[in-house]
Amino acid sequence: MNITRLILIQIFCLLTIKIISQTVVPGGFVSGFWNAEFGPYYIDGDITLHADSSLAIHEGVEIIFRGHYAFNVYGYLNAVGTPEDSIIFTSQDTIAGWHGLRLFEIVQALPDSMRIWYCRFEYGKSDESGEKGGGVYAENSTKIDIRHCMVKNCSADIGGGIYLKNSPIHFNQLTVEDNYSNKGGGMYCHYSDAVIKNSKVIDNTGAVCGGVYFYHSSAIITNCVISNNMSHAGGGGVVIHKASHANFMNCKIEHNMAVGSGGGVAILEGSLPVFKYCHISYNTTQYQEYQAKGAGFFITSYDNSPVIINCFISGNICDEEGGGFYSESKLQLIDCLISNNVASVSQGFGGGGMYTMFNQNLVLNCTFSGNQAPQGSTIYSAGSMTEMYNTIIWWDVMNINMGFLHH
Asked: What is the pLDDT of residues 189-240, one digit of tens each?
């Protein structure tokens, strides 16, 4: 009996320690160290890390916001979890959410890069008109290293998961998943030459652009997957807009869908992006109230000049013109395979591989194979000139007798 009572007392003590092992943060300024043994940390107001202060958050810490409160950071934040024990930022009320991690003026004056590693941001909400960055917002910040993090189930008017303004942040092993926004469901880069490596942008939704929206941003995107994103008004996977000279290397932009044009990639207004060793595949456009052109790439007439090298553009299907490409600007295709793309057979539109309008194009060392369209199964040219060198056209399919190339 005595041994049984002793065991029950020990269990009670352990449970009591677990219950009282928590920290309530009422709001205001924070600094110092946050450890798992004193967690979870319940946040009951907006908290701010002052420019002269630092805060270290250690592995295993859970930070729970008990209202729509923000974590504003002007100082040095070091939030480093581990693969086995990440740091979690979440909301007690997953419907109302919290107001996200908001980084301001993190500049070179800091002694070292701010590190945010192995963290999970979820249920951040910035849904009011004009609000930006549901999970993470960064403004005028340069010295930040974010890696092995997840941003999930967040929303905002612009930049559902992440919003960057004048902030060339480095991301590695980032996952941006199941976020929503009116513009840039997963991420929005505004004048931000971010570096994004080995990352996934998946299953996000946007009114305009489901995945990543680049505006005046010449980002470097390497070894990334942008997949299964959806847009209700164009740009399913990626939008490149306003002099954004983004550089994509060894990326997969696949299975994205746009109601409207640009199922995989939409390139708008004075942009010169480069794609190398990328797969742009199985993207779709769907006609409802918007034109549904360019399932792989949709390129407008406003002085764009994309260069696409050693890429696979395959299996894209659009409701209107341009299964692989719809382009009204200069386009350069070098060493590419354009295969099994479809421009709507039922509606009679053209350009299974490419639909070009009033532009000049260069096609060098490419292969067109298995593309399908009622008119111009390989290329439909509407007032365009396309120079083709050392290029193979093989087994493209015509539904009516309009030829592989239609001019």
From this structure: 999 999 999 999 999 999 999 999 999 999 999 999 999 999 999 999 999 9
Residue 401's pLDDT is 34
Tokens matching residue 273: 């992006």
- The C-alpha atoms of residue 248 and residue 275 are separated, in whole angstroms, by 5
What is the Cα–Cα distance from 228 to 272, expressed in whole angstroms?
25
Q: Give the residue-averaged pLDDT of 84-108.
A: 94
Torsion-angle region of 9 (φ positive above 0: left; ψ -120 to 50: alpha; else: beta): alpha
DSSP 261-322: S-SSEEEESS---EEES-EEES-EEE-SSS----SSEEE-SSS---EEES-EEES-EESSS-
Whole-angstrom distance, CA of residue 119 vs CA of residue 101: 11
Q: In 3-state terms, what secondary structure has residue 54?
A: strand
Cross-strand bridge partners of residue 116: 79, 146
Q: Are 34 and 61 in contact (CB under 8 A)?
A: yes
pLDDT (0 to 100) of residue 375: 86
Written as one string, the DSSP assignment of 143-202 is: -EEEES-EEES-EEEE-SSEEEES---EEES-EEES-EEEE-SSEEEES---EEES-EEE
Tell me the two tokens of residue 337: 């395979």
The pair of three-digit structure tokens given for residue 13, joined into one six-digit string: 């003590």
Tally: H helices and E strands in the chain: 1, 55
What does the DSSP 8-state code read for residue 132? B
Query: How would DSSP label each residue in 61-76?
Result: -EEEESSS--EEE-SE
Element (H, E) at 64: strand 62-65
Task: Give the pLDDT of residue 21.
Answer: 74
Residue-wise pLDDT for 257-310, tens only, equals 999 999 999 999 889 999 999 999 999 999 887 789 999 999 998 789 999 999
| Dihedral angle computed from the Cα positions of residues 358, 364, 369 and 371, in that order, rounded to the nearest 10 degrees | -10
Q: Indicate whether this model's pTM tops 0.90.
A: yes
pLDDT of amino acid 107: 78
What does the domain layout of the chain look like in residue ranges? 233-407
